[in-house]
Design brief:
By secondary structure, this protein is α/β, with parallel strands linked by helices. The protein has 2 domains: about 1-190, 3-Layer(aba) Sandwich (Rossmann fold); about 200-325, CBS-domain. About 40% of the residues lie in helices and about 15% in strands. It has 13 helices and 10 strands. It has helices at about 1-10, 20-30, 30-40, 55-65, 80-90, 125-140, 145-160, 185-190, 200-205, 225-235, 250-260, 285-295, 315-325, and strands at about 45-50, 70-75, 120, 165, 215-220, 235-240, 245-250, 280, 300-305, 305-310. A 4-stranded parallel β-sheet has the order 3-2-1-4, with helices on both faces. Strand 2 (about 70-75), helix 5 and strand 3 form a beta-alpha-beta unit. Helix 2 crosses helix 4 (about 55-65), helix 3 packs across helix 4 (about 55-65) and helix 6 (about 125-140) crosses helix 7. The protein starts with a helix and ends with a helix. About 30% of the residues are buried.
Amino acid sequence: VSRRLAQETPNSIYMNQYDNLSNRDAHVKTTGPELWEQVEGKMDAFVAGMGTGGTITGTATYLKSKNKNVQVVGVDPIGSILYDYHKTGKMVPAHTYKIEGIGEDIIPQNYDFKLIDEIVQVTDKEAYQMTRKLLVQEGLFTGVSSGAAVAGAIKYARKNKGKRIVVLLPDSGNRYLSKVYDDDWMRENGFLETGLGSVRDLISLVRPPSRGAIITASADDNVEKIIHLMRDKGISQLPVMKGRELVGLVAENDLLNALFIGKIRASDKIAGIVENNFAKIGMDDEVERLSQSISGGMTPIVVENGEILALISKIDLITYLGSRKTA
């Protein structure tokens, strides 16, 4: 419609921010130099949301001209096609998402994906909740694309400790008063915290780092090996992996019952007694989801970036909830 109106209206122009390369050129001339000068060149990574491609491509062009080692990290909503296109070079179907201002179902001509080193995906909930946190904790009245950028930057920072990271916050909260800053809208869309905290809060309290890495079993391990492992480590259940994929759990009760009825022998592989009664949980999921999983007879397994961080038991949940009530 806008293209047609420009053709029909005298002395008008169709700006076409997606494919007009003046978009990214403006950031080469302004945004890039401004950031570089303000931090005196002391940056290891630049993080920005991905929409038309003008901001991230133009800024990246300038920053890499000053220091080719600066990592450029894009933030893309889950449902947008940009993450998959960058990773595989293939177009995939887009899906709906509520984050505004970033994400695409097309590939604008302003993009130069060779300049983008990594793309981090964020969920609607992560973006909207981070937008609220920026206001409450930092006094920054931003829009949702800024919340998404910070949420993505934090994910990147957790994997790249010690990096000096510059994050671009491109929007104001003025246009989001009836959404991210409206409790009813946030509640209707499931973005408001319920008050019990996140899985990250629980793990920091009941699963300190001193416990060490999670011990896993392989689907090709035999029963005898698992018995010795459980006995030596004092554990009653193990996540079972097939390569890098989590395929289930093996518990001491399952071993006992199978051995008792003669279903398996010590030399047999454990694959036949692996149970899939587990639920994958994210670090930023709410504690309520843990409770629902446990109530449904599932073992919650906390996974982040493909790594198993914890198995959560009933006593872990009880300890956490009890500590909150007495705090």
